[in-house]
Amino acid sequence: xxxxxxxxxxxxxxxxxxxxxxxxxxxxxxxxxxxxxxxxxxxxxxxxxxxxxxxxxxxxxxxxxxxxxxxxxxxxxxxxxxxxxxxxxxxxxxxxxxxxxxxxxxxxxxxxxxxxxxxxxxxxxxxxxxxxxxxxxxxxxxxxxxxxxxxxxxxxxxxxxxxxxxxxxxxxxxxxxxxxxxxxxxxxxxxxxxxxxxxxxxxxxxxxxxxxxxxxxxxxxxxxxxxxxxxxxxxxxxxxxxxxxxxxxxxxxxxxxxxxxxxxxxxxxxxxxxxxxxxxxxxxxxxxxxxxxxxxxxxxxxxxxxxxxxxxxxxxxxxxxxxxxxxxxxxxxxxxxxxxxxxxxxxxxxxxxxxxxxxxxxxxxxxxxxxxxxxxxxxxxxxxxxxxxxxxxxxxxxxxxxxxxxxxxxxxxxxxxxxxxxxxxxxxxxxxxxxxxxxxxxxxxxxxxxxxxxxxxxxxxxxxxxxxxxxxxxxxxxxxxxxxxxxxxxxxxxxxxxxxxxxxxxxxxxxxxxxxxxxxxxxxxxxxxxxxxxxxxxxxxxxxxxxxxxxxxxxxxxxxxxxxxxxxxxxxxxxxxxxxxxxxxxxxxxxxxxxxxxxxxxxxxxxxxxxxxxxxxxxxxxxxxxxxxxxxxxxxxxxxxxxxxxxxxxxxxxxxxxxxxxxxxxx
Length: 667
Known about the structure:
By secondary structure, the protein is α+β, with helices and mostly antiparallel strands. The strands form 6 sheets. Strands 1, 2, 3, 4, 8 and 9 form a 6-stranded mixed beta sheet that branches. The protein has a 5-stranded mixed beta sheet with strand order 12-11-10-17-18, sandwiched between helices. It has a 3-stranded antiparallel beta sheet with strand order 6-5-7. A hairpin with a 3-residue loop joins β1 (3-10) and β2. The chain is elongated and about 145 Å long. The protein starts with a strand and ends with a helix. The model is unreliable at 26-30 and 510-528 (pLDDT under 50).
């Protein structure tokens, strides 16, 4: 099923909406550049002035029409502001609700969007530091009729748009600073692209370009011949004042779009004049075309416009101060002060001194600006929505694969792993038994029973040793490889479906080098599975020891009996063991098995026990021992479950880590 995502960039100065359709069954359709929705006046207008106007009967117009319709009674511009969580601002909330609802209902009515679309709404980065602000802002959009709303940082959206559009290499561009120069705020997002667990640094200030527009408006008003008449009209007709302020915005945009052209003191910057009539029917004109380029630049560079906690600064200086704060933050976090890439977005980022100030503070940075900065955030918001849907679907498929397919594939190959573990443990324990038998034969320990205790202690110590983990790693590498290869085939389909680069998920089970992601199987077992495998291995070890102990006891009983019977001193020992040998009487072996373990045999007896015969007998039992272990393990369903769980949890964790990283690559 196709899902529609709308990126809603409600700016202080202008509003733009972008749209994408997410079709999980077809990667190509859902990777296209988000398309802009036509919401402004004019056939090719993809954005509109953030303005709303009311007729006397409360009917609504939005955008430029709200400022130019002669029947409008009152109008409002630049009304976006930080909502107050604990307070109700009815006038503000009504403006926002009416404006948002008008856009939404108009697009639904025209068939441009679906009623149940998913909306990703942008807000200044500073707002995201208070969840209550985000909740309040979300409520405002939902009250306007939007059903599915998520609010995210505007600068984060700009980052996603630029990353995807520019196709940035995350390896060469480690630190990225996104600067969103909007009408009401300037927001900064600093991110380390190579460190997937790093948290972005978000900050911002009420330092929007609207401050410059208001300064231009005031400066131009003071130079108007009909200033007194204009001020009187402004006090009565706010929508005309709004039109004049918008004209000053256009003046600023015209200047900065061709700043090099307006360096001449004679050339004035063109902007449309605004006309109205006074109470006597006389035409009154507000003419912004009385300023030259040098005058505009001087006004910006010399006029204190920004209140920085009681200290007034010019706009460029205030912007520079914010850049310095970002650099100080990097120092405080122990980072290099070097920013590899600075991405500029927001319509006001076209102001020439923005790039100049960035270059002053971050000397060696690559500075880029989106070619359509006025649409960058809307498109980035739409991309974020698409990523959210696709990563959510992706995560569900990964979870389903883990809980069903992965476990079943491990279970059907667990018998191979049993055999590998049995073989490895049998070899290790037999080697230790031979060593301890030699110790007993030399008389270092008193009894066979003590020899058995030493074997138990040695095996328990072996199992807990770091070196033994490496031995187990070698033993199970083939079976783990077989399981991982099987799992690779399962995740490959998911990998292709979501357009994740080759190996993005398969590397979680990389069997070619017996590694799980970047972790070797040895450390994979040590770190992720060992605590769960240890009870299983201990159980296997106890089975092996029991079988080998029965084997060696039987061998010694058979060998010691004839040795003792052959000599008079041996008869004495047999007597001490409670054995009286008369021809025709049996049971020597059984009594030997019962009494032998606790008896301290003299050295001459021990030396007559053939080491070669003992070794040969133990080695001959190897296959039988392995078969018995497999049989015992298969009978123990709880043990089997523990082993499956151990392997499953290890592979699942590795896959989830690979999936988390892969989400960054889903678009």
